[in-house]
Protein: Cation-transporting P-type ATPase C-terminal domain-containing protein
Organism: Tetracentron sinense
Amino acid sequence: MNRKVCMVTGDNLHTAKAIALECGILGSNADATERNLIEGRAFRALSDIEREQVAGEILVMGRSSHNDKLLLVQALQKKGHVVAVTGDGTYDAPALREADIGLAMGIQGTEVAKESSDIIILDDNFSSVVKLLWINLIMDTLGALALATEPPTDHLMQRLPVDRREPLATNIMKRNILIQALYQVTVLLVLNFWGRSILNLKNDTSDHANEMKNTFIFNTFVLCQVKGMEEMGINNGH
């Protein structure tokens, strides 16, 4: 599944290009072609059909207005793309509403932007979107497979009716949840405090070691959730 990040900014095209190169939106100067870079006024001057044709190639749009962002979203959707938009200002609201997924900034975002969005990024960090996507891809996909491949439980038909006042979680379920939570917290705390030694990162720079350690902790957390879903049956009281 292909994913592409586009930057729509009010800065001039030269500044926008430099930011895109630093962020990795443009891999190199070779990617900074006329097809990938465009000014807002040039984009809005195109016809609807022409906008659809060029929208998929655009990586950076400079000197753009908030309406240009909306036009880009609409053009991409007409081409069949699923579009997510980030924004923090009041004038971003139309694009946030129009997008398949609107993401507003939680710290600097206006109330209008937050109300128009589907998701609020609490730390105003764009990388949180990537982390959220990774968590959903791994946990939802593998979790659904774990539930879908679980064999049928025949003895459910022999169970007596359950009183409506009975708790949803049985004692066995509560015990297993507590054990799983303690296990995961212990593993993550060990990695947090002694991760540099465990991963043999003592000789690395502090920034690189922390980046590697935090990445390992994050992926360990995700895989712990997947493993827990695979091992805990939902139909056998576990």
